Amino acid sequence: MKTESILYTLVPHDLGGHRLRISLTLSNPDPQGQELALPAWIPGSYLIRDFARQVETIKASSNKRPVSISKTGNHSWRCAPCKGPLTIEYVVYAWDLSVRSAHVDETHAFFNGTSVFLCPLGQEEHPCHLLLQAPPGVSDWKVYTSLPEAVGHPQAAARHGFGMYCAPDYDALIDHPVEMGTPQVISFEACGAQHEMVFTGIAPNLDLERIAEDTRRICAAQIAFFEPETQAAPFLDSSDRYVFMTMVTGDGYGGLEHRSSTALMCSRNDLPAKERAEAGEGYENFLGLVSHEYFHTWNVKRIKPAAFAPYALGRENHTELLWVFEGFTSYYDDLFLLRAGVMDEAAYLRRLARSITMVQRGAGRLKQSVAESSFDTWTRFYKQDENSPNALVSYYTKGSLVAAGLDLAIRQATGEARSLDDVMRLMWERYGRDFYRGQPGGLDESAMPGLIQEATGFDASDFLSRYAYGREDVPLSDLLAQQGITMSWKTAKDDLGLGVRLRSANGQCSIATVHEGGAAHQAGLSANDALVAVEGLRVPDEKSLKTLLERWQPGDTVAVHVFRRDELRRFDLTLAAPAETECELQRKRPQSKKAGRHE
Fold first, then answer.
1. Closest CA to 145 of 263, 38, 34, 274
2. How far is CA 122 from the centre of its chain?
């Protein structure tokens, strides 16, 4: 029996009001009453977001007659029984400038399918068609997406054009975000596969050629890493191209992976300008983001934890393995900048040292393992507050250190014959390569020790028990020393010895975080306290505070006045010497031969 395709139509009909109009037509709705749902979260961002709250209006009809539709839950609806075809028309408010949802204005329209496409429950496996229409009165916009054009359909879209697109099922439909507008665009090939880079927003004199060449090298290195023999790009199972969609803002940063594309945000100051030789650390951050999201094409979009195969988009999907999927990816993102030749070793070691510093400064690493952090991401990691550094550890950052330590431990145990690379390639072969071709299941929660031993011969049970499922610090100093790299610690330039993180704005300096055990904690100061004065002298910003505190020595006690809410408080703070909390990594220099010595 032929399966009827589900038809979606989308138009950004109200640019000034930031609205999308969507319709969904089902040829054969459930005769008992069709149920519909909008995802409550988007894969890759593990927080219930309730996208349905942005549905402003919704109505249903069949054969030009109204059909009753009612809300049945936070993000679900039910239509009254009808013979069909059934059409649901609704309007979505799209004003979330992030990589997660949808954003529409007079300059562009961007959306993720999870925030705009209702799912007809019971028909998730049916093929889908999507008709994209231009905003009324707009003639110069183009469409950028990895969603395939509906070749052979009478309304098939041309490349970058409005018209009909297609997906094999609902899961695929919502995994290809769409950008519409007049962005800056450049294309390149890596290992024979087409890639597009799309930059939306104001980015004057953007050096597209440099960005494309650096990205090409990163992509080629990652493809060859997973497929050394065939060098076949993984996304060719769902699209004929990969699309990097970047929203350029004044201070944005972030990314969200998809099976054949990624949505990124970055600061325009992080992007290189033409004829500027030095792009700076911000550009390293952007390339690291590009590398991270592209690595996800293998690790989490195809190699998945069993809890994500398939996704349950109406509720939390708990797993203890995000330290593998995000942590390992965070390790390899910078490593591939080094392997691709877009970063030298000194810069790589500096970035690795920064990750070590970030983890070491947080007392939360002693209270929560990265496995626990993974499981609690839904309620804790994505809902951080002023105390989070004291209570939580990042499965991204410490997860990357677990990966680094595991890589070094395997290399040491096998005499450099094996590494974490072998583990990743085994995971790809067993769980990822054929995922979208019907291979069932994902990585079991307890599978990692066995996989590591199978791939490398190294028994990682004790290592993982202590550093991934336990709360011990990864012994990177000893492991790096085996590679000829020394670890040392120094006092950070911005460390005042107070044990706080500060923020300054509009002539007011306040406390963002009080680190457990520090001088501020001992004195009774709290997050969100607004600093007024130290020993009667006003404190307008961090620089003034630093200058003022230089008048005293560690061990001295000073009077600190703060506003806590609208109440003036005084605390006696005993100053402490700044701790050596900033990590430095350096390659050991070979010893020179002494003059006159004969070998």
1. 263
2. 31
Q: Tell me how crowded residue 568 is: count the other CB atoms within 10 A of its CB.
A: 11
Residues in the chain: 599
88 vs 9: CA distance, rounded Å: 10
CATH no. for 6-181: 2.60.40.3650
Pairing of strands 6-14, 19-26: antiparallel
pLDDT in tens, 414-459: 999 999 999 999 999 999 999 888 766 799 999 999 999 999 999 9
Distance (Å, rounded) from C-alpha 456 to C-alpha 519?
Answer: 47
Q: Is 58 helix (H, G, I), strand (E, B) or coil?
A: strand
| Cα distances (angstroms) measured from residue 410 to each of 449, 461, 473 | 12, 12, 18
Lowest mean pLDDT among 30-39, 273-282, 422-431, 520-529: 273-282
Tokens 């007392």 belong to residue: 363
Percent of the chain at pLDDT above 70?
A: 97
What CA–CA distance (Å, rounded) separates 162 from 16? 20
CATH node for 500-574: 2.30.42.10
pTM over 0.85: yes
SS (H, E, C) 142-173: EEEECCCECCCCCCECCCCCCEEEEECCHHHH
Beta bridge partners of 508: 505
Long-range contact pairs involving 530-539 (C-beta distance under 8 Å, separation at least 24): 530/562, 530/563, 530/564, 531/502, 531/560, 531/561, 531/562, 532/561, 532/562, 532/563, 532/568, 533/560, 533/561, 534/558, 534/559, 534/560, 534/561, 535/559, 539/509
* Distance between first and last Cα of the chain: 84
Q: What are phi and psi of 135, to 5 degrees?
A: -60, 150
CA pair distance 540, 505, nearest whole angstrom: 9
Q: How far lies 42's CA from each of 47, 102, 367, 504, in Å?
A: 8, 12, 28, 34
Locate 180 and state its tokens: 């519409």
| Helix, strand, or coil (residue 256) | strand
Six token digits for residue 56: 């402003």
- Asked if residues 293 and 256 have their Cβ atoms less than 8 Å apart, the reply is yes
- The pLDDT tens digits of the residues spanning 399-412 come to 999 999 999 999 99
Please list the residues that pair with 19 across neighbouring strands: 14, 93
Q: Do 298-483 and 183-273+281-289 have the same topology in CATH?
A: yes
| CATH architecture assigned to 298-483 | Orthogonal Bundle (1.10)
